[in-house]
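Protein: Flagellar basal-body rod protein FlgB
Species: Aurantimonas endophytica
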Amino acid sequence: MDQVYLFGIASQRSSWLANRQTVVAENIANASTPGYTSKDLASFSEVLDTTGLQLSQSSDMHLASLGRRRGEDTTVSEDSWDVRHSGNSVMLEQEMLKAGEISRGYALNTSVMKAFQRLLVMSVKG
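Structure follows.
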């Protein structure tokens, strides 16, 4: 059975939630900007599936066959509920739903980590 690095996964999820909150805040800030299209991040499960051990290279000739592309953007344009005449696709209701999802994600992440920490403390105390 493989080891599960719960603290590492929780840290990655917290970083993902912070980045998603930034994207949602940008969408809300640009709600009245003509031509602005709503953005969102790929889901955390997709990010976690593509995240793995990254090899580093000390020369351009090393690891050339891996075909890694640096600086790939994980933001995806999202199909919005409605597009206004100005070409803006940000719907404040949809962005507020996303903000609620982010808040619940933070709360879930925190409660799981608290429970795991209590479990560790109880096992150390005996």
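Remarks: The chain has one domain: 2-46+72-125.
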